[in-house]
Amino acid sequence: MRMNKNGGVFDITQKIVFWPIAIFIIIIILFAVSGMLFGYRNSLVEIPVQLKAEAVAIRFLNAPECFTYVDEEGIINPGVIEASKFTQDQMYDCYHTPGGTEGAKWLNFKIEIEGYGELKTEEFYEGSIIFPLYKNVLVKDGDNFFGKRMIIYVQEKI
Amino acid sequence: MLIGELLLIGLVATMIFKLAGDYSNSEEIIVEKLADDITLTVNTFIGVPGDKTVSFYWLDLSKYEILLVKDRVIVRGEEGLEVTKYFYVPSNYDLTGQSKNLRDVSLKKTGKKIELKGVGS
User: Fold this and answer.
1) Tally of domains in chain A
2) Do B19 and A30 touch (CB under 8 A)?
3) Residue A104's pLDDT band (boundaries 50, 70, 90)?
4) How far B89 CA sits from the closest chain A CA (Å)?
5) Is the ipTM of this complex over 0.90?
6) Which positions in chain B touch A30 (Cβ < 8 Å)?
7) A7 pLDDT exceeds 70?
8) A28: containing domain
9) Interface contact flag, B86 A15, Cβ < 8 Å
10) Which of A35, A127, B31, B33 is the most exposed, fewest CB within 10 Å of its CB?
């Protein structure tokens, strides 16, 4: 049916149907664009959990408060693990998560050294490991040094 | 009636540009990023033996307030936004410091003490 160029009943009806639908679609598009921008911005500012885990995990190899061997002269030996310090109490002292901090994300760890067992942080729970970190270490056991691999299992929890 | 369509397109375009502008200039990004960077630095300080100093930052921080305490860092922006990040340090470490309306910030580790200081005006 030919439309009346000067406007008529059909022209008005067409606009009455068209505009609400168009406005509704435009609102949906605006929400979608807003969501995409929000997601993109979050992806730009987020620090990868692997980097966060590495930053925390280096203390297990290098910090005397954790497992690192300190000789009689007080010299810290990074990368050398004192076997007698590889205990659960030392682990809690090295990395203590108080738990119950609402809304906070924190990392849990389980550390294994072959032949020396495994240690866990307080909040670590089995079955939900994100990824492992592998570190080559020396273990000082008495007067002897052994080359071992330290496996640090990482878990993120809210 | 064409004017109506043109006005609507102009309105939608303005709204989309405003949205994009708001997100790109968001204080939320800077506050979040700053708190994350300080947390990473504190964790790295604990893992690396010896005394050291790290200075921040590529941005003028005079609009922000930063507070460092034992187990967390709190960053407050000009628009009232506040972000808290937690870290878990060995028990013999002492963390302290505050920066308010100062351009630059530095983190200094001396022994078992980590101090945050503001620098400049």
Assistant:
1) 2
2) yes
3) low
4) 6
5) no
6) 12, 15-16, 19
7) no
8) 1-46
9) no
10) A127
